[in-house]
Amino acid sequence: MENDLTLVVDALPGLVWTTLADGRIDFFNQRWYQYTGLGVDEAFGAGWQAAIHPEDLPKLLECWRSPLASDEPCDMEVRLRRYDGTYRWYRFRTSPLADASGQTVTLCGVGLDIEDRRRTERALRASEDHYRAIVDGIPALVSLWTPTGELDSGNRHYLEYFGETIEELRRWGKADTFHPDDRPHAFAAIRQAVETGDPFDFEGRRRRADGVYRWFHMRGSPLRDTDGPIVLWHILHTDIDDRKRDEALFAGEKRLLEMVAAGRPMSEILEALCQLVEGTAGGCHCAVVLADPGGTRLEYGAAPSLPASFIASIVGRPIDIESDPCATAMHLNERVVAADLASEPRWATDTWLPLALAHGLRACWSTPIVSTTSKILGAIAIYYDEPRAPTSLHQSLIDQFTNIASIAIERAQGDAALKLSEARKAAILDSALDCIVTIDHEGRITEFNPAAERTFGYRRDEVVGQRLADVIIPPSLREKHRLGFARYLAMGESRMIGSRIELTALRADGTEFPVELAITRIPLDGPPSFTGYLRDITQRKQAEEGLRRSEAFLAETRRLSSTGGFSKRVATGEITWSEEVYRIFELDPAIPLTLERILTRVHPDDIHSFHEILERQRRGADYEHEYRLLMPNQSVKYLHVVAHANRDQDGQVDYIAAVQDVTQRRLSEQALAKARSELAHVARVTTLGALTASIAHEVNQPLSGIVTNASTCLRMLAADPPNVDGARETARRTIRDGNRASEVVTRLRALFAKKEPTTETVNLNEATREVIALSLSELQRSQVILRQELAGDLPSVTGDRVQLQQVILNLLLNAADAMSDVHDRPRELLIRTERDQHDRVRLTVRDAGSGFEPQGVQKLFDAFYTTKRGGMGIGLSVSRSIIESHHGRLWAALNDGPGASFAFSIPRRSEGVIGAHSLGAIWTSAVTDIQQAVRNL
Amino acid sequence: MDIPSLVSIVDDDESVRESLPDLLREFGFAAQAFASAEEFLASDYVGQTKCLILDIAMPGMSGPDLQRELAHRRQAIPIVFITAHADESVRPHLLGQGAVECLLKPFSDTALLGALNAAFREG
After folding, report:
1. What are the beta bridge partners of residue A567?
2. In chain B, what is the straight-line distance between the N-terminal and C-terminal CA atoms, in Å?
3. pLDDT in tens, A207-239
4. Which of A239, A447, A793, B90 is 20 to 30 A (C-alpha) from A195?
5. Å from A860 to nearest chain B CA?
6. CB contact under 8 A, B18 and A705
7. Do B86 and A704 touch (CB under 8 A)?
8. Cβ–Cβ contacts within 10 Å for residue A115, how many?
9. What is the ipTM of this complex?
10. Cβ neighbours of residue A756 under 8 Å, at least 6 residues apart?
11. What is the pTM of this model?
């Protein structure tokens, strides 16, 4: 049995031994000896210990002792030396064997070779270490979850991020590390992944050790066994906080720009900007201040989270270096950082710093906002409640915000300007008197202003979108319009663009009317569009027609009245003549007109005055001038020129002048003047009867002086001693009086010559009209209003026509003189002819002058009686003698109102004019006598 | 020495007013000339005048007017009229009204002296 057992023991693949109670081994199986190479002798006792690795022996001995004491089995792994000296791992397991009495008598040990297993385990461990090193080296947070989604482990970054051990993290669970806002969707994602076993990813914020949440992208993948079940999840956390912030910034920018584009008020946009800054930077207050339009003072921009009392103190401060940090930043055009206001030396002189501190602000970073054209628009200020300096991240953020602010402000300001311009455009469009129609590149109406509505009779909404040609262009012209429009689009040119054309347009009611059309291209990118300005020119056309007619009429009138026109530009000497002027000058219009050519026609006696006029033209004054032409046939033409100077905006003088050939008039006037002088002459002659005494008086006066002086002179010389000085003085006076007498004689001599009075049939009305014609200019000069009441059936009278006209002239001029001092009423003069009783004809001249003394009425007709300074007082007496020579009567009467009336009445027929014929002879002899007397003197 | 008698002259003609006083002074009179009757009446010489040489035709108050005015004022001054108006018909009329003489211009110095002598004889 024992041998059988030994055979079994030896056949076992492991080592078997038994140990005595005292620890000595009393049995080894055959494999033991073979493995260790030890002999029986060597192994027994303590000799076997030589095969145990020295490091493992004490533990083994200890382990073996304990089963003996406690009946517990001992199980441990030790290195056992093989026969070749190499150690292999063996697992030793000993169990106590009890005898019949229950006493442990021996230990039975089994040893199994575990070297291969141990080697595998080592390799595995090394591989795990390697893996961990790799995971820890990943610059991301990596964690492993159990298949049920519980945290198992995390890499070094993971633990460092949360600042906790894995055990603590396991204890806390996920809830605490996720941002509250992100928990619902994070947990849902995890739950779904665990249920389905599908990979997952989501984004969420996780709390860092310092309490700051950062954004992570978490991607989870299941790790499966070869059989398929998930053994664990590994989760990769990628930090996307920068990207998230950029995205938020981008979204904020986009929102701001959308606000700008939507035309939101600038204040609203800046407020949103501040909120974006505060949301992005965190824990700060943001304010935007603006430069006022003059660029000298701060204006409020936005400050949604700062107290109004603080912001109000900033607004209106001058933009200089010491007002406040924003003003400084704007003034210097650079970022101004006050990291700790408590120790800040700047802005202390003003009230800003104490105020900022009083509001609990401890840091302020101000950055100027600069436009694309380098104009300082304002500043962004970021305030913190604790001392703080901007990091480079902050700085780049601020730069980004500043850029957005610049765009927002510039766009808002540009938008405001654009709105103003749009409003102006709309106002212009609405109030324009011209029709304004805009069309797109297809010729469709895009705008139709009120004037166009009025003119064409369409409402804007009726025609917008329709083709212009179909609306306002008559069918006959549409094809032409279409072709022109198509050509423009194809070639980019058109005769119409930029020029004004006249065409016929169509109203809604079908009537056609003339319009003037100007088309301009709207200078915008994209498909071309056009603005058409249309004006109803019906009235202008009518006016033009009227003008044409009146011009034709004027030309005809000019031709008939021998009036020409010319214009002259003084600076260039350029002269334009009308046809009539050429006709007057008898010059060929085909030959160019020059000053030299004109001068060949000017009368030699008038060349000087002509040059004076040319000089006057250079001064640019209006003028009126008469000169003569000497024509090749030696005839003389009289020209009357009235010239008006016009100055254009450059100060250039242009003359517009009318030239009239007044030759006929001048010749008539000369003839008239001659007739007039003859009449006056005759009148003087006819006064001789009364003048006899007057002439004697006029001559006797100086003669008296002469005689007296001569006498005195003689007496002075005859005295003893002679008064020579006195004599010289009297002689001098004698000579003077002699000259005076001579003058009187000369004057008198001129008064008359031979002219025999005649007797003829006289139409008194006609004679009166001639007198009026002669004296009209004199009456007008005296501002006399002449009224004529000439009887239509007045019979003619017999008499001396010229003498009667002298009387009428005398009465008219007297009447005019009588009113020369009248200023408070019209100087009205009435001349009336009528039948008088007893077959007589009466003529009355009534004035509104000062009248005369009633008792002096008879004296009026005395020779030498005069109320006029310088008058000889012979007019009325002469007149009376003339009338009396016609067997008539001349008298005066005061009017009921102001003034007097003088009238004469003469018979229709008389036996001839009496006495008058002798007057000339009397005068002739009288003057001869006087001349003789003076000579004798 | 006797104080010369004052002869006043009233004439609107300047050459008379210039020449006649010198001649009168040659005669030994004192002389004053006035351009109008109104001027003479307004002067202080009316009472002193021993003889008046008076033009007939003057603007305003004429010579005869002045004669009447003086008579009205009871100023008995001998008057010698002078006139350039060659109208013999007025002379008898004036003499009839109390004038000493009426001389027609131009008159000689002897005619004047004769008239003055007549006037002073009267006076």
Report:
1. A576, A656
2. 20
3. 888 878 888 888 888 888 777 788 888 888 888
4. A239
5. 13
6. yes
7. no
8. 16
9. 0.85
10. A917, A920
11. 0.34
